[in-house]
Amino acid sequence: MSDPGRRRKALPVVVSGSFVAIWTVWWAWHMWPNSGLSWHFSVDGAKLLLQGSGLNLYADAPWLQTGPLSLVVAAVLRPLPAATGKSLALVAMAAAGPLLVVALTPLVAPAKRRRRMLIAAIVLIPAWTVLSVRWGHLDDVLAMVFAIVALRAVSAGRPVLTGVALAAAIASKPWAVGFLPLLLLLPWGRLRAAAVAAAGTALAWAPFVLANPHTLGALSPPVGLSPASGLHTLGVRGVLMPRWGRTAQLVLAPAAATVTALTAGLPGVLLVSVAVRLALDPKDNAYYIGSAALAAVVFDLLGTGWTIPWTTLGTVIVFWQPFVADFPHALTTTTGLTHWWFAHQEAVGAIHLTWAAVVVALAFTWPHLRAREVAFS
Question: Within 13 Å, how many C-alpha atoms sit on residue 109's CB side?
């Protein structure tokens, strides 16, 4: 192909890539004045791990709902000035969103691929910057990054990389155990991949459990029960999450994802895992939108031929939460739809639970393409 021909072919890619980059920067800038709201959890956890509790970390601080790998990553930034380290982390996490969409390129059917991916990125980025910039949840970002790596490794038939990626995801955030059914979709080497995933997970978590058996108490942390949560909508009452709450999430999310993997293939595994986890969660945190939207993007791009990523768009609309800097006084300082949202938390919980039921049903029943039919087209 001549140089002019190459330039003409590359021009749409450059234009769409530049637009997505500008769109990401704008949303990050929009979130920046109230950013990194949860970044201190990573910083405090890293400090406790290195200079405080050590391997007693989760026994001493069961409220830390994060994995050791995310704390190690946060610890790498500790030599930098606090503001600099935080800013670098937020920028990197924001950039990860569009890059993860790009990583899906070989798995997306060729028809209208560029247009579909561009629209998917446009829909995803506002939700992703809520997770990555406004809240700065390093553990959730890492879990989803490694989930996409595992997805690519499965499609490429690379069992060792699949096992390593899944272990890293679980070491970043415990609920990533729901992604383990991806192992079932490997064309070969499933036992090897499972052994690698098990060994990596044990390497991350076993030292804490062996050092202090009370580490397992983190399975029933003192987390409040929100009226907008899935558990509350399902009829659970009380001030705190029931003792069986986290265990139910860690068991039922991979169970549902396993059924999805065996009956419907690759595209819906992440979405079903995240949906079941959120349906059983005691909270309704605003940053949940990022993981849910990315899982929906995977389903829309890999499992359907839709030009508009309807699952992702619906997910972003349903989980978008109005933000107020003065949350304790939201009912007295807001009006209109924003006021309704804060005043009707039980209705919000019902909407979110309905979303979970709808997307799980969609993943099970939609006649989508199997990943092997589109992978590396």
Answer: 17
Q: What is the pLDDT of residue 8?
A: 62
Report the C-alpha dihedral over residues 204, 205, 209, 212, rounded to 10 degrees: 60
Region of residue 322 (left: phi > 0; alpha: psi -120 to 50; beta: else): beta
Segments in 243-304 forming alpha helices (H): 245-264, 269-279, 288-303
Element (H, E) at 331: helix 330-333
The pLDDT tens digits for 336-346 are 999 999 999 99
What is the C-alpha separation between 270 and 177, in angstroms, rounded? 11
pLDDT of 7 reads 60
Going by C-alpha positions, the residue among 173, 149, 225, 145 that lies closest to residue 38 is 173
The per-residue pLDDT for 289 is 97
The 3-class SS string of 358-376 reads HHHHHHHHCCCCCHHHHCC
Tokens of 58: 């989760």
DSSP string of 335-346?
Answer: -HHHHHHHH-HH
User: d(Cα 211, Cα 205) in Å, to the nearest integer?
Assistant: 10
**CA 179/CA 306 separation, integer angstroms:** 24
d(CA 146, CA 320): 24
Q: Pick out the chain residues at pLDDT < 70.
A: 1-11, 368-377
Looking at residue 214, its pLDDT comes to: 87
